[in-house]
Design a protein that fits this description.
two-stranded parallel ribbon; disordered C terminus; TOD1_MUCI70_glycTrfase_dom; transmembrane
Length: 567
Amino acid sequence: MSGGSLGIRSGSYGSLDKQGQNGVLPIQAASATRTKAYSKMLKEKETLIHWICKFAGRKKVGMLLLCVISAAVFVWVVYFGEDQENDNSSKVNDNLALNNPLINVVQSIRIDNWTSLSVSVKETKVGVMHPPPPSYFLGYTLPPGHPCNTFTLPPPPADKKRTGPRPCPVCYLPVEEAVALMPKVPSFSPVIKILTYIFEENLNRETEFGGSDFGGYPTLKQRNDSYDIRESMNMHCGFVKGRKPGRGTGFDIDDSDLLEMEQCNGVVVASAIFGAFDIIQQPRNISEYSKQTVCFYMFVDEETEADLRGKYENKKIGVWRIVLVRDLPYTDGRRNGKIPKLLLHRLFPNARYSLWIDGKLELVADPYQILERFLWRKNATLAISRHYKRFDVFIEAEANKAAGKYDNASIDHQVEFYKREGLTPYSEAKHPITSDVPEGCVIIREHIPISNLFTCLWFNEVDRFTSRDQISFSTVRDKIAAKTNWTVNMFLDCERRNFVIQKYHKDVLALLAQRAPPVIYPPPRPVPAPPPPPYMANYSQRKVPPRRRRDRKSGSRHHRKVSKEIV
């Protein structure tokens, strides 16, 4: 039994051409042969070592051996340490995915729409190192059975007295889940990959119409060329007089504030108040995590800053960081407000996401919940609410003229220009587009080339024509969509009213305060009525009978006159 096992084991270590006739290796002969070969190899090594020592001392030989060992260790770390690090990082990511079911769902459905490199990992180690293939966020779906999957809007309350706009419920995720679903990579930008901006040290003011020193004076040919979407584009996008936005460009900002704005590399919430037109509204229902990670910036002019002086310290009021803006480029306050509204990607060059809210609005939901609901869950890169009542640009233009929002001739000129370019009234034939008129007081977006291009083009229309951005919105959106198949997520106005509350402008509040009766605090106690005098006691208790109307007699003049005629 033992001999059989020994024969099998010996056969597994030998070579087939040296086996004996009986299939069992000659173990003793093989060991003797190996001993002779080993002694011969030792002699060769000793001869080589003696030869080296003959021409070099022992110290030099030791240094040579130390260098050889160090080189071997270095090569081992370079080639095998990187693979081990990649393995460990993948294990950590897998563990995070297992602990969070929502992250697990995201990773399980993510699809990379870019082909991998043709060079293998081993080839890159030997040859030139290639950059990794780009990866993009392509959306996710919530787990089956999640309440938001089956959420539907309830019917509006049957209140005949209230027929105007109102908020409706929105299915948000908890802040922790929304933060966990924040994309680690940017979304895909169709066609355009590189977007640069024009800087003109000497402005060329030769243009057909429109333009400004802040936005430049692009010709109509340059305007048409900017709608020819290409992979790399250089275009007007405000701040044309300086190489850095906010420094000698108009809309100038202190260097300390610019430095802080460059440090914001995640989510920014921005607003603006010019001309002391509004009262700063503090956000509510904001998580502690958002207070620590989200940048809240309020841009004010010198008039507003003077009105706020003494009400803040360290450039902060609540969560808002106050940024003083000097040298406003326009005399129209509404047009000045379009600079931070549409060009946040230029003011915050390192931010990934932004949420713009008008100065009259109060934010009442967490920014991460809003981003998850209207961007990430919809796989959108820009979201804006549609107007609650108007869907057609032509109707919107007439409403602006009736309300005196802008010069009527300028509005007519803009609409006629768009009509010649192909603008048509809104109809159901434009589906899935649900509206041509936005409610532009809130803009939610990701800062990637395609969304940056959209807001640049939108700002250029505002700079060339009227400041009423609702009129130019659909023209810019449709021209980009025709070239790239990219569009905007237009959600319901009642959903917008769920996370922002509109307040009155300061002048309206002052007018209401003048009309309201003065309020005295604390209110005075009511003075009791004095008791009646004794001689009026019986009189006050007497009941006065009601006065009866005098009955009309049946034989009135009219009746007597009729009776005479009959006779």
